[in-house]
Amino acid sequence: MKNLRTLVALFFIFSAASVFAQLPANNAELPFIEVNGTAENEIIPDEIYISITLKERQEGRDKYTIDQQEDRLKEGLKKLNIPLDNLSLSDANANYVRVKWSGRDVLTRTEYLLKVNDAVSVGKVFEMLDEIKINDARIARVDHSKLDELKKEVRIMAIKAAKAKADYLLEAIGAETGKPLIVKEMTTQIYDNQMLNIRGQSSQSMLYEVEGLKYTDADKLIQFQKIKIRESVYVKFGIK
Fold first, then answer.
1. Residue 163 above 70 pLDDT?
2. Three-class secondary structure of residue 70 per DSSP
């Protein structure tokens, strides 16, 4: 019985040795090339969020309530064919406070968030706000409705760039790119890049300067930045 166990053990040892003998001693000895591929794309935001603050004021004997200003705001949006569903409270509880503002007693204030789809609409909204004397507004943020799809497209561009880089480097030495051995997504960066200039109009001399936006009566110019998506991919290819 002891001899039988010894024979079985020797059989497995020789079988394993035979299998390993058919494989390279070390995968690191296989020829390979490592490259990084990068790609980027600039897109115009199609979701621009405008923060609008309404303040209740007492000016002499005249009182301007939040409700009155909200009604005028909604009426102005209707004239611009902007759906009222695009207007919402920026906070579910509506931020009511009592503060001093420009020497006048501000009784209450609340903030709204309005979504529009392009810079032309931004200009029209700011013009309308000026006409109904709502002067506290700013661009809160910009976004794109298909941002996830666009990021995917840029990732594909990045890995194709990595393959192209491996191809021309190996072609220079008379070799060919083999199968990918390792693929790693390195970084995803989303940030603003260029200024987008769109003509707007203003009925009075004013200047709004907020992050990513300038609006002046002098040049009637609205500016905000494009969104840049940048992707990097690391790929390790075998060499044929």
1. yes
2. helix
User: How many domains does the chain contain in total?
Assistant: 2
Mean pLDDT on 162-178: 96
Report phi then psi at 24, rounded to 5: -60, 145
b (16+ CB within 10 A) / e for 116-143:
beebebbbbbbbbbbeeebeebbbbebe
- CA torsion, ordered 124, 111, 217, 117, to nearest 10 deg: -30
Q: What is the CATH number of the domain that holds 182?
A: 3.30.110.170
Q: What is the mean pLDDT of residues 151-180?
A: 96
Supply φ then ψ for residue 157, to 5 degrees: -60, -40
Amino acid at residue number 50: I
> Nearest CA to 122 among 19, 202, 40, 228?
202
Name the residue with higher pLDDT: 60 or 104.
60
84 and 139, same domain (yes or no): yes
Cα–Cα separations (whole angstroms), residue 182 to 93, 159, 186, 235: 50, 12, 12, 6
Handedness of CA 88, 197, 228, 41 (dihedral sign): positive
- The pair phi, psi for residue 65, each rounded to 5°, is -85, 165
Is residue 91 scored above 90 in pLDDT?
A: no
**Does residue 159 share a domain with residue 200?**
yes
Residues 195 and 137 in one domain: no
Amino acid at 153: E
The Cα–Cα gap between 181 and 217 comes to 59
CATH classification of the domain holding 127: 3.30.70.120
